[in-house]
Amino acid sequence: MSNRIRVAVGGVTGWAGGELARGVAHADDMELVAGLSRGAAGQTLAQLTGHAGTPGKAVASLDDLAGTPYDVYVEYTKPDVAKRNILTALRQGAHVVVGTSGLSDDDYAQIDAAAREADRGVLACGNFAITVVLLQKFAEMAARHLEHWEIIDYAKAGKVDVPSGTVRELAYRLGQIKQASQVVPIDKVNGPVQTRGATMSGTQVHAVRLPGYQLGVEVIFGADGQRLHLRHEAGDGAKPYVAGALLAIRKVHTVRGVVRGLDKVMEGL
């Protein structure tokens, strides 16, 4: 890599991608060299970020970046195109940071194979907020000592992917420890089985989609005569995710293949 990390941001006009693009543009050790946005294709990155020193224009597709060198691609677009974008960026020689939700374990298995073949790293964080990183670590600690838990996924009414990437990642990580125990097996319940949620990596997950929510996750652990609630709630702004995403951009070149979780590259966690 050069002294300054050349970054391409997918979803450069989006809620999270736009805030990150501004963070990259103002970072002393980074250079925003490209941004993906079908709706804003052709507009200058200086205009989109409010940073006059940012060169280049937004493009509609990663295919348009074939002649633009970049070190790290940050995927912040939509679930239906995220996988293709990631694989394209790997073929173009970039490391990848994934912020888009909706990718499955099978998707990540395919991405991992492609990343290893390209000798590149993919850092899939699900959520870049430090409070989420801590929730994940605390939940893993609890799962080593408790047998029963379920996850509730909260999001705004218009969020189409269920559950969120944060919850997918949390369920996956808990499943790496063990599967949650069920007093009554899911296939033995009396009534609509859907009311027990979906089983993901051995955990029951319930997705709530209502006005008034932005993003939230709660994992509830139960034991005889006691409960433990771990809950994260996000506000309306995307600024809490910028610092973690910038850290991921700086660290992704240190890994190979898919690494899941920002804490994997954070010292002291």
Bin the helical content.
25-40%
How many helices does DSSP assign? 7
Poorly predicted runs are none
Shape: elongated
Give the helix/strand class.
alpha/beta
Residue-averaged pLDDT, rounded? 92
Strand order across the biggest sheet?
3-2-1-4-5-6-12
Strand-and-helix sequence, N→C?
Answer: EHEHEEHEHEHEHEEEEHE
| Overall strand count | 12
Rg value:
19 Å
Strand content: 15-25%
Q: Main sheet, how many strands, which sense, barrel?
A: 7 strands, parallel
Distance between the termini: 26 Å
Domain Dihydrodipicolinate reductase C-terminal: 132-265
Pfam family, one: DapB_C
Protein name: 4-hydroxy-tetrahydrodipicolinate reductase
Enzyme class: oxidoreductase
Write up what this structure looks like.
With 269 residues, the protein is of the alpha/beta class. It has helices spanning 15-26, 45-49, 79-91, 105-118, 130-143, 165-177, 242-251, and strands at residues 5-10, 30-36, 58-59, 72-75, 95-98, 121-124, 148-155, 198-200, 203-209, 215-223, 226-234, 257-260. Helix 1 (15-26) links the parallel strand 1 (5-10) and strand 2. The longest helix is centred in the middle third of the chain and has 14 residues, at 105-118. The chain is elongated and about 60 Å long. The mean pLDDT is 92.
